């Protein structure tokens, strides 16, 4: 499939902004919520993951995310590649407030990936954290971000499922539905007060 048929004729920042806006709307993402971003800049360029990282691609993707973040004020977390065990770039104040385990490394293109390395250098006071349970995820190039989403993940099908040459996968998390056949999940559907015995 050629780049034009995947929507790559639009600037990358615009593609990211459009798709991320769809995720924010579908998931009801609010200020302070956490979104994990997994990005293979190699895949965006039409190459195999981990082979052709590119800082200019990372900068364009970061810009698209920044545009939506300026409107919604969610917290962005940037997943590193497998060579750093898929740790995440986070602002230190957030990591400390959430009680996440901080690990020692600085992501670079060959260990961490171009996107995480770029995001780390844009942060005011960055650190890497071992794991999180985020409210939503935005995965460019099938980097496998699911380990950092809290249950229950709900897939969102983007109107254009490509960023550049990379497949886009998105999801948001919802609270678990508990109970059995008598459980009610919305107050407006709840019957009057009665016995459970």
From TrEMBL:
Segment forming the signal sequence: none
Pfam families (UniProt xref): DUF436 (PF04260)
Taxonomic superkingdom: Bacteria
InterPro entries from the UniProt entry: Antibiotic_NAT-like, DUF436
Recorded family membership: Belongs to the UPF0340 family.
Protein name as catalogued: UPF0340 protein E6C55_01845
Organism: Cohnella fermenti
């Amino acid at each position: 499939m050629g780049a034009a048929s995947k929507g790559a004729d639009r600037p990358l920042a615009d593609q990211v902004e459009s798709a991320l806006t769809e995720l924010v709307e579908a998931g009801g993402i609010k200020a302070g919520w956490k979104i994990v971003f997994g990005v293979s800049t190699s895949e965006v360029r039409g190459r195999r993951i981990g082979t052709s990282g590119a800082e200019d691609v990372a900068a364009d993707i970061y810009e698209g995310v920044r545009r939506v973040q300026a409107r919604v004020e969610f917290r962005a977390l940037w997943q590193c590649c497998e060579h750093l065990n898929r740790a995440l770039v986070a602002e230190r104040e957030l990591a400390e407030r959430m009680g996440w385990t901080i690990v020692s490394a600085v992501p670079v293109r060959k260990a961490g990936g171009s996107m995480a390395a770029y995001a780390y250098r844009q942060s005011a006071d960055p650190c890497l954290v071992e794991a999180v349970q985020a409210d939503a995820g935005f995965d460019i190039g099938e980097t496998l971000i699911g380990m950092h989403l809290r249950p229950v993940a709900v897939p969102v099908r983007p109107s254009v499922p490509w960023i550049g040459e990379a497949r886009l996968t998105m999801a948001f998390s919802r609270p678990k539905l508990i109970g059995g056949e008598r459980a009610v999940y919305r107050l407006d559907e709840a019957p009057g007060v009665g016995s459970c015995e």
